[in-house]
Design a protein that fits this description.
The chain is mainly alpha-helical and 272 residues long. The protein contains 13 helices and 2 strands. Helix 1 crosses helix 13, helix 3 crosses helix 13 and helix 8 packs across helix 9. The longest helix has 33 residues.
Length: 272
């Protein structure tokens, strides 16, 4: 009996290790590729090479740092606007059942719209407002899918806050609005942080809208990384360095809020 249990655990452990290796391998290969010379990159499975910082130096002296700054600005502004508008909306759905269950799912369906369905009206709107090749065009496009998701994300956290907290605050003289931002919002601070990170990651990774709405001065990091695919071929070394620069901070930050991410994504569902 014990041997069978040990064998089962060993098989499960082996499967988990295999899955982990499959997930980690692309990141490891990309990291190593960023330190390889062009000749070494022609031997992709060669692990014995002399590291070089040439790819990182070339990448840091390109347009990538400015594009990183553009991505940070776009992501930060998008997240702030999403929280500013999404938190009161989620609170309304949770406490007052605004629009009923149908309105909840309508919010989720709004962020499920394919980007291709919105890009033409967005492009024409930005062209009319003379906002093409500006960061505001990217922010507006990102709000179309991040704002609904942040709203859905926060509904579950508001559902977990006991209404008695607000009632006690109103007994002490607070209005409904004051109870919301003085009592309820501080209570769901971890959820706000997780929603902010999740929205920032979505904005940070977007290529479709950024590619079509930006120009030379407003390109974001994903567009810059795609730019390493040139008519001469792929500049793999510099592209790998830019990819590591892009994924590093996001992976590190995700470790701190991963449990809230899982909880938030499932918390907005309709409860019986």
């Amino acid at each position: 009996m014990i041997s069978r249990r040990l064998a089962t655990q060993a098989i499960i452990l082996l499967i988990l290790c295999l899955a982990l290796a499959i997930v980690i391998f692309p990141y490891l290969w990309t990291l190593l590729a960023s330190f390889k010379t062009e000749a070494a990159l022609n031997r992709p499975l060669d692990w014995n090479f002399t590291p070089t910082l040439a790819n990182w130096q070339a990448m840091l002296h390109s347009e990538i740092p400015r594009q990183v700054l553009n991505s940070i600005i776009v992501g930060t502004v998008t997240v702030l606007l999403s929280l500013l508008l999404g938190a009161p909306a989620a609170y309304s759905f949770s406490r007052f059942r605004t629009g009923g269950d149908g309105a909840r799912f309508a919010v989720l369906l709004a962020q499920m719209l394919p980007p291709a369905a919105l890009i033409v009206p967005l492009f024409l709107l930005m062209y009319t407002l003379h906002l093409l090749d500006t960061l505001w065009a990217v922010v507006a496009s990102h709000l179309t899918f991040i704002l609904p998701l942040v709203t859905w994300f926060l509904i579950g956290f508001f559902d977990d806050v006991p209404p008695e907290l607000e009632e006690q605050a109103m007994v002490d003289g607070c209005t409904q609005w004051q109870a919301f931002y003085r009592v309820v919002l501080p209570t769901i601070r971890p959820g706000l942080g997780a929603a902010a990170l999740f929205g920032f990651v979505l904005s940070w990774n977007d290529l479709f809208y950024a590619l079509l709405l930006t120009g030379k001065h407003s390109r974001t990091l994903p567009v810059g990384i795609a730019g390493y695919w040139t008519f001469r071929g792929i500049e793999m070394g510099q592209m790998s360095a830019a990819i590591i620069l892009a994924i590093g901070p996001v992976i590190i930050a995700s470790f701190f809020v991963q449990r809230y991410l899982v909880r938030g994504l499932g918390g907005g569902a309709v409860k019986g």
